[in-house]
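hey so u asked for the seq, here:
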Amino acid sequence: MKRVGGRVARGLGLVLVLGVFAALLGFALLAWQVDHLGQRDDARKSDVIVVLGARVEPDGRPSSDLSSRIAHAVEVWKAGQAPYIICTGGFKNERLSAAAVCRRVAIQLGVPAERIALADGTSNTAEDARAAAQVMADRGWRTAILVSHPLHLFRARWLFERVGVKAATSPTSTRVDRIDPRLRLFYTAREAGAVVATLLEGWGWLPANWKTQLQEWSHGLS
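ran it, structure tokens below
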């Protein structure tokens, strides 16, 4: 009996080790996809360009990240890749929301006001995707070019496709290979982890407040 029990224990141990190895390998592959997609510009003719929201400074100026997203979206628009732009993020009907600031700056850069739609009232990428998808549905738009930080685009595209938007990606001019390796690894792992966590949440395997806990953890890192 002891010999049989030992074999069972060793078998279970082997299954556990293989399971952990497979999980780590799958996560590494996902992280590689996050990094790899951010190095390609797949912009193509689409109905609209979507600017993913980012931080706005207290005085109403766009942060450097938001500025680069707006500037790049306008470049893509001027290149004729899409006739309209959707700006996302921030409190609804708020003058200093990411969406409103994005619209203001895009107009200053030469985009006509009637060519810009807002998808505000959002605080994260999943909400951006749902709000932008609703604006697109209301106007009969089906395809979008997503503009954001290179390492954000894999998750953004995945979330947009989950709500039925056929999305291409176009990263800002941020050079991934010039990001500090440790910071690049952190951002890549965080984005991959957010994809996994969203899946686990959908399956009911995560607590309802996991996003708050993750945000507090990530802000606490130096």
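The chain has two domains: 48-175, 178-219. The longest strand covers residues 143-148.
lmk if thats what u needed
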